[in-house]
Amino acid sequence: MVKTPITVAYGDGIGPEIMTATLDIFDAAGAQLEIETIEIGEKVYLRGGSSGIEADAWESLRRTKVFLKAPITTPQGGGFKSLNVTTRKALGLYANVRPAVSYAPFVETKHPLMNVVIVRENEEDLYAGIEHRQTQDVYQCLKVVSRPGTEKIVRYAFEYARSNGRKKVTCFVKDNIMKFTDGLFTKVFEEIGVEYPEIEKEHWIVDIGAAKLADNPSQFDVIVMPNLYGDILSDVAAQISGSVGLAGSANIGEQCAMFEAIHGSAPRRAGQNLANPSGLLLGAVMMLQHIGQPDVATKVHNAWLKTLEDGIHTYDIYREGTSKEKVGTKEFAQAVIARLGQTPQTLPAVEYKETQALKVEAKPSIDQKKELVGVDIFVNWKDGAPKDLGSVLETFTSSKLGLKVITNRGVKVFPDGFPETFCTDHWRCRFLTTDGSPINHGQIIDLYTQMTNAGYDCIKTENLYTFDGVAGYSAVHG
Ligand code: NAD
Question: I need a surface site. Which of 13, 173, 191, 386 has the fewest CB within 10 A?
Fold first, then answer.
């Protein structure tokens, strides 16, 4: 059998121990891999590479297109960018697939019937990494959600459900509050869902959805969600299934894929032969399936299930009475190796089949008529009450463009604000035309110039557009 080239990073903290355990098991199971090892993470950060990865590592990844990655440590503090986020975005790994399964009665859990797959959007949302400090007191992080990005992840979730015999896809969003970004996610979910009539669809606001997931996960099957909710809730899902150390993940792109554990580098457990290698192992099993070695994937997964069944457990899942033997990382790997070729007796055995990679595409977008109708000018100001600012800004106009409303942290404070509303030094001043007619950029520049000439510290502008006559900006609270 031809060996498949893959790129491997041993990572930081518990990374090297769990990667060695995983590769030892693969070796014994007969996985056909040609491994290129790269160094990423802490050592690279500490020798000055702010992204935690260097040019030759990128070359390897772009050559093999398959990355098996142990967790890495992102040093605390400014200046260091998360390598995980960078890798996912640079390689276009838009879908993060995170199964969370319980293994009762062998691994203690309150949820013996749990078998949930979280499909997390992987490139957008608050992970765009666009953050600014705009005033002394106010910081901002931009939540970016695109229609093509959303179409791809939602379609991936439905295709995943269809090809894996899953019956239901649920969408978690906060579209009652974020009507544009999460609202788009819901809209796309509803549009695309129609194309999958055999699959049950449901939609929950993420807060109650998360509560239901934590309380009764067996009511869910596949859950698709934006990046941040998926990040948080996949850890919750893994932990309530038995341990965060049990869940693996596949990061899928059109050309490349990355496989990893969902947990981090657990630095406090490092170097003590303690960590559970299962999360990385199951991520790596997804890799074997992806690169067309389903037989080896089946063999490893079943041997691993048998090991759990035999009560051979690392510290995180070891429970007196349920478990038989508490083992370290190396001994756990040896126990799996000793069971290669065996299948579990009680837990359902798995059987991976040769499958085609799921291909999803976003539809070309339909051109809409985009008209500039106003501007939000943000001002750093702390010289009085809202009416002091409003009464001056009302005197600045450009053609029909004039002050409509001022908000502070999103709440209307002028005109007719409440004295109880707490105000910071960050004011959003909305200028619109009196009759809704379109404006041009020159009018915005004119207004901006009037304000800066009068001594106002304008910190940013946000253009207000309509698309086919529908406002492309949120209404004001209050
Ligand atoms: P963590 O996931 O590393 O650890 C959280 C808790 O889970 C700890 O109590 C740890 O002991 C336990 N745990 C995690 N993995 C385990 C395993 N395999 N076996 C047994 N117990 C395990 O989260 P953290 O402490 O918040 O983060 C540590 C570092 O990892 C940070 O630098 C963070 O940036 C990084 N991180 C990396 C990744 C990644 O590389 N994909 C993901 C998350 C966090």
Answer: 191
